[in-house]
Amino acid sequence: MSIKGGDHGQFGSYEMQKGDSAPKVTGQEQLQQVVQALKEWMKSVQKKKGP
């Protein structure tokens, strides 16, 4: 899973790192993408484990 428009420094909530490009989404938008991806992943894991 990749975060579209995000960058490494923004993900970790620290300044840009060497090699980072400018983010194309806000920190809030990037965080929302991470939360959504985690929710989807947790649902898929739960389905595999069963009730």
Description of the structure:
This protein is mainly alpha-helical and 51 residues long. Helices cover 53% and strands 0% of the residues. The protein contains 2 helices and no strands. The longest helix is centred in the C-terminal third of the chain and has 23 residues. It starts with 7 loop residues before the first helix and ends with a helix.
Keywords, separated by commas or semicolons:
51 residues, mainly alpha, 2 helices, 0% strand
Uncertain stretches = none
Question: What is the mean predicted local confidence, pLDDT?
Answer: 83
Profile the largest sheet. Answer: none
Number of helices: 2
Based on secondary structure, the structural category is: mainly alpha
Strand tally is 0
- Elements, N to C (H/E): HH
Estimate the global geometry from the Cα principal axes. elongated
Radius of gyration: 14 Å
Strand proportion:
under 5%
Brief write-up:
With 51 residues, this protein is an all-alpha fold. Helix content is 53%, strand content 0%.
Task: Give the topology.
Elements: H1 8-11, H2 27-49
